[in-house]
Amino acid sequence: MQLNSLAIRALCAALAAAASMNAWAQGPIVIKFSHVVAPDTPKGRAAERFKALAEQMTRGQVRVEVYPNSQLYKDREELEALQLGAVQMLAPSLAKFSPLGVREFEAFDLPYIFPDKAALYKVTEGRIGRELLRKLEPKGITGLAFWDNGFKVMSANQPLVALKDFDGVRMRIQASMVLDAQMRALGAQPMVLAFSEAAPALRDGVVEGTENTPSNMYTQRMHETQKHLTVSNHGYLGYAVIVNKKFWDGLPAATRTILARAMREATVYEKQIAQRANDESMEKIRKAGTTVIHTLNPAQQAEWRRALQPVYGQMENRIGKETVHAILREVAR
C-alpha cells in the first residue's frame, strides 16, 4: 500500500506523540498549533496568547508550537492532519467542517445572517454554539472555542457596487457551497482557492476579486493588487479552535483543566482585538492609496440583500432547516 506524504508525516507524528505520551514525566507535553493566516492577524495573535498562557499556567509542563501562514498544512490538508494526529490544534474557518459531513457550520456563511457582533455572540456563546461543537466529536475532534475575525468586504480590480458590476467577475472563495451560491446569486464566477493561494492568484490575474476581512486583506497585501474595495459587511468570517480528541482526552485531567482556562482567556483577548485589528487594517489600506474604498448606501445594501435572499432557500436543506431557523430566531431576539 502506498502512503501519500501527508499520511507519512502523520504516521511519524503519531509515533512521536506516542513517545511523548510515555515521556510526560520526563519532559513537556508538546501541542502543535497550525493555522493558515499571518501572525499579526487576530487569529495569529490569539494563538500566540494561548501559547504564552498555556506555558505559563502549566509552569512549562506544556509547550505550544505555533505554525502560521500554512507553514505545515494548507486549507485542504489541515483537518486531515489533525484527525491523523500530525498536529494537535487548529483554528480553521467554520466553512471547513462541511467536507467532514458537519454541514451545519455552513450556516455561518449565509449572507447577512448576523446583523452585528452581539447577535453573533448569542449563537456562538450559547446553546447553539455548544451543540455545533459537540457535532465534531464523532469525527475525532473536540471543539474548544469560537474565535472571531469579522465581517467581510468585497474587493476587485473594478468597483463592485451595483449588482451588474459582478457580472462574470472571477471571485476567489474558500470551499463552501454557500459561498459558491452567494457569488452566483450576485452574478459572479466563484473559484475555490486555498487561502495561501489567494494573494498570488489575485496578483497573477487568475482571479479578479475576492471577499475577506480587512485584516486578512492587509496582512496578505491583497490591497496592493486590488484597485477597489467595497465595505459591504455581507458575510461573517469566524473560526473554531479545535483539538485532536484522542490527544485531548488522554491529557491528565489537571492539565486539561488548565489548558481550557488558558483557552478561555485567549478567547476573551481574541474577541477584544478582532474588531480593532480590522479597523486598523482598513485605515492602513486607506492610507496606502492603492485602493479606492466604496461604502454601500442603504439603497445599494437593500439591493444586495434582495439578490442574496434566495441563497437561504437554496442552502437550508443542505445545512439543515432546523439549524438555520434556530439561528435566525436567536439573532432576532
Order of helices and strands: HEHEHEHHEEEHEHEHEEHHEHHH
Q: What is the overall pLDDT average?
A: 92
Number of helices: 13
| Shape estimate | globular
CATH architecture of the largest domain: 3-Layer(aba) Sandwich
- CATH classification class of the largest domain: Alpha Beta
Strand content: 15-25%
CATH topology of the largest domain: D-Maltodextrin-Binding Protein, domain 2
Q: How many independent structural domains?
A: 2
Radius of gyration: 20 Å
Proportion of residues in helical segments? 40-55%
Report how far the terminal alpha carbons are from each other: 55 Å
Descriptors for this entry?
single chain, 333 residues, 2 domains, 5-stranded mixed sheet, 48% helix, globular
Structure, described:
The structure is a single chain. The chain has 333 residues and is α/β, with parallel strands linked by helices. The protein has 2 domains: 5-99 and 116-148 and 239-278, Bacterial extracellular solute-binding protein, family 7 (D-Maltodextrin-Binding Protein, domain 2); 153-235 and 279-332, Bacterial extracellular solute-binding protein, family 7 (D-Maltodextrin-Binding Protein, domain 2, 3-Layer(aba) Sandwich). The protein has helices at 5-22, 42-57, 75-84, 117-124, 127-134, 177-186, 195-204, 214-219, 245-250, 253-288, 298-308, 310-319, 321-332, and strands at residues 29-34, 62-67, 89-90, 141-151, 153-156, 170-173, 189-192, 209-212, 228-231, 236-244, 292-295. Helix 2 (42-57) runs antiparallel to helix 10 (253-288) and helix 6 (177-186) packs antiparallel against helix 12.
